[in-house]
């Protein structure tokens, strides 16, 4: 809100003033400690002084503090140090020397003031500088006397160059906010019919889906001033600062109306109100109260549209969401197939693309990717092409970039022993075979024993289409697939050689089975009841006082039901591997030979056909020679990539 150039100029002036004060203080200190005798005098030792005194060579002396300055009979001057000799005055009088005593030298009044107060002024200046830096840095503030000012960054009319044409993949959201642009351009069109434009629009969606970009596009399209601020910028260590900043923000916006105020991550300041364990007052709550008043209080704010973004709408205060404040909630979700293709085409405009690149093909292989993920995909592909010395980004580079994002970067520095490679190959083959055989499971896209990220091997499943819900059969198929790796280790190497590599598989399987019972109501014995506790509680005091909704008997029944689901799918996966033991050996041998195999090779193995060799697009390399490695025997616990599009991203 505060002009950044003026802030920088004020900071320079303050620093210059401090340096001038320090320089003056040093000069005066130097002057007070030095003498300005215009006639040069020679220093004598006290014994030489007494000798000259007895010889009658001294005419007069001046005693000041511990210094003795004198004049000889030949007109030359001298000075010496007075050791506090009590007989000195008597000796001087006996030798006829004129004696003059002077009071101690004192600095001037100005010098005394500077010497006494400048250290305190310097401390105050340093404290002032730190406070200005902490309270006023970032987008405004100006210092300790201005930290109640809003820290929002102001973009003048026409400064925002982003328009709705630059936003892709969220067509419904663009339609929702389109009338905001129309209102800002032509408000009379709505007021003539008695219509009232929404005072606030809350954009809700996962991270990276383009909420901030959409808000900037609205401002760029309407060509009105745009104020952007983060929700955390309102809250400070001092009580009342947040409310003051809210008031200042809306005061500035009123002067620039019509305009847009964009609050990113509003859940930082807009969470549900409530007392903590100590019953103390919350500065964040006071800030929220002021925000509620400004958005729809006694004094109206015509021409100001507040746009906020969050991915936790469930924790916002109900008073903030009511009509009159945030009248409308715009869901900015993950893009579908057509949306992903459109987003890719937007980002591909800045990159030289080869003729073999098809945005729809890439979009089909990236389910669950957000707009930020797709932007990162194009950037990674361009980096791969640059490293390879290419002038265009080919489809192969997009495949490599997708593998890096979904499965992790290759770690060629890890050299596994032959026994570790063999165990990893059977582990991943077990996942792939069970995943191929269970019903309604996503197809196997790729299997690799190349260490990636924190995993020694990865089995990647990609859904054939976007999925928005999961059936009980699909969840149980995922459970069986997760146990395929551990079961393959047990069947081939024996129970005593089962490794910790399946620790993450077991953790994920347990979470799925427990959610089936406690959240999804998919238990035959316990029925369609919700037993899971609320994970969105934001106040410790409220969560502590809540009573547990599950009795000990019910908790025991839940554990029993979870165990039954786990055992049922564990046995199913074991039976499938026993029935396809030969295919397990074949797939493991292929992995040991090529390290990475794709869908075509897996189809050949499962149908009994001779296996085709994988293409270079899969990143296959010659097998790594054995000889030991840094990892423990059997490999470290496998940490899979995140779930993509509701599918098992890699196991």
Tell how many strands the DSSP assignment holds: 14
The shape is: elongated
CATH superfamily of the largest domain: P-loop containing nucleotide triphosphate hydrolases
Helix content: 40-55%
Number of domains: 4
Distance between the termini: 50 Å
**Average pLDDT, to the nearest integer?**
77
| Total of helices | 21
What is the CATH T-level topology of the largest domain? Rossmann fold
Q: What kind of sheet is the major sheet?
A: 6 strands, mixed
Second-tier CATH architecture of the largest domain: 3-Layer(aba) Sandwich
Structural class: alpha/beta
Q: What is the beta-strand fraction?
A: 5-15%
What is the level 1 CATH name of the largest domain? Alpha Beta
> Taking strands numbered 1, 2, ... along the chain, how are they ordered across the largest sheet?
6-8-9-10-7-11
Unreliable stretches: 136-145, 537-547, 618-651
**Compute the gyration radius: what is it?**
39 Å
């Amino acid at each position: 809100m505060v002009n950044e150039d003026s802030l920088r100029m004020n900071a320079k002036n303050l620093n210059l003033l401090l340096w001038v004060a320090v320089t003056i203080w040093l000069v005066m200190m130097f002057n007070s400690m030095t003498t300005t005798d215009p006639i040069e005098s020679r220093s004598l030792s006290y014994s030489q002084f007494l000798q000259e005194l007895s010889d009658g060579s001294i005419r007069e002396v001046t005693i000041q503090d511990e210094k003795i300055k004198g004049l000889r009979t030949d007109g030359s001057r001298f000075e010496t140090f007075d050791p506090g000799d009590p007989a000195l005055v008597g000796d001087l009088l006996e030798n006829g020397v004129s004696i003059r005593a002077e009071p101690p030298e004192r600095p001037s009044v100005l010098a005394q003031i500077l010497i006494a107060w400048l250290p305190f002024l310097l401390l105050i200046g340093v404290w002032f500088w730190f406070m200005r830096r902490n309270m006023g840095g970032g987008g405004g503030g100006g210092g300790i006397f201005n930290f109640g000012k809003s820290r929002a960054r102001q973009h003048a009319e026409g400064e925002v160059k982003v328009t709705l044409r630059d936003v892709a993949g969220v067509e419904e959201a663009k339609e929702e906010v389109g009338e905001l642009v129309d209102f800002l351009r032509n408000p009379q069109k709505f007021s003539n019919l008695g219509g009232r434009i929404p005072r606030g629009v809350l954009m809700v969606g996962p991270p990276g889906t383009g909420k901030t970009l959409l808000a900037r596009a609205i401002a760029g399209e309407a060509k009105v001033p745009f104020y952007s601020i983060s929700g955390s910028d309102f809250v400070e260590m001092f009580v009342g600062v947040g409310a003051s900043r809210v008031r200042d923000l809306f005061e500035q916006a009123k002067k620039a109306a019509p305009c847009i105020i964009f609050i990113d991550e509003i859940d930082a300041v807009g969470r549900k109100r409530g007392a903590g364990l100590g019953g103390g007052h919350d500065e964040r709550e006071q800030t929220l109260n002021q925000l509620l008043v400004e958005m729809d209080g006694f004094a109206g704010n015509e021409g100001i549209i507040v746009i906020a973004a969050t991915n936790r709408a469930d924790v916002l205060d109900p008073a903030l969401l009511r009509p009159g404040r945030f009248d409308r909630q715009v869901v900015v979700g993950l893009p579908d197939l057509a949306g992903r293709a459109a987003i890719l085409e937007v980002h591909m405009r800045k990159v030289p693309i080869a003729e073999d690149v098809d945005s729809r093909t890439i979009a089909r292989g990236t389910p669950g990717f957000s707009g930020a993920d797709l932007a990162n995909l194009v950037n990674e592909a361009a980096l791969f092409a640059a490293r390879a010395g290419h002038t265009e980004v080919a489809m192969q580079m997009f495949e490599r970039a997708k593998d890096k994002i979904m499965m992790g970067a290759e770690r060629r520095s890890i050299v596994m022993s032959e026994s570790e490679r063999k165990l990893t190959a059977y582990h991943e083959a077990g996942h792939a075979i069970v995943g191929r055989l269970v019903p309604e499971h996503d197809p196997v896209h790729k299997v690799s024993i190349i260490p990636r990220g924190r995993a020694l091997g990865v089995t990647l499943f990609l859904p054939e289409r976007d999925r928005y819900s999961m059936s009980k059969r699909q969840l149980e198929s995922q459970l069986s697939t997760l146990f395929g790796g551990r079961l393959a280790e047990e069947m081939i190497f024996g129970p005593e050689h089962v490794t910790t590599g399946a620790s993450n598989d077991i953790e994920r399987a347990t979470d799925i089975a427990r959610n089936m019972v406690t959240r999804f109501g998919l238990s035959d014995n316990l029925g369609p009841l919700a037993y899971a506790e609320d994970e969105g509680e934001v106040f410790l005091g409220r969560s502590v006082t809540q009573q547990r909704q599950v009795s000990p008997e019910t908790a025991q029944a839940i554990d029993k039901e979870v165990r039954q689901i786990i055992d049922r799918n564990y046995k199913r996966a074991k039976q499938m591997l026993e029935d396809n033991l030969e295919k397990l050996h074949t797939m493991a041998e292929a992995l040991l030979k090529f390290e990475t195999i794709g869908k075509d090779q897996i189809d050949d193995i499962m149908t009994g056909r001779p296996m085709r060799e994988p293409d270079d697009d899969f990143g296959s390399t010659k097998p790594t020679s054995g000889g030991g490695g840094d990892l423990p025997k059997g490999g470290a616990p496998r940490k899979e990539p995140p779930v993509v599009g509701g599918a098992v991203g890699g196991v």
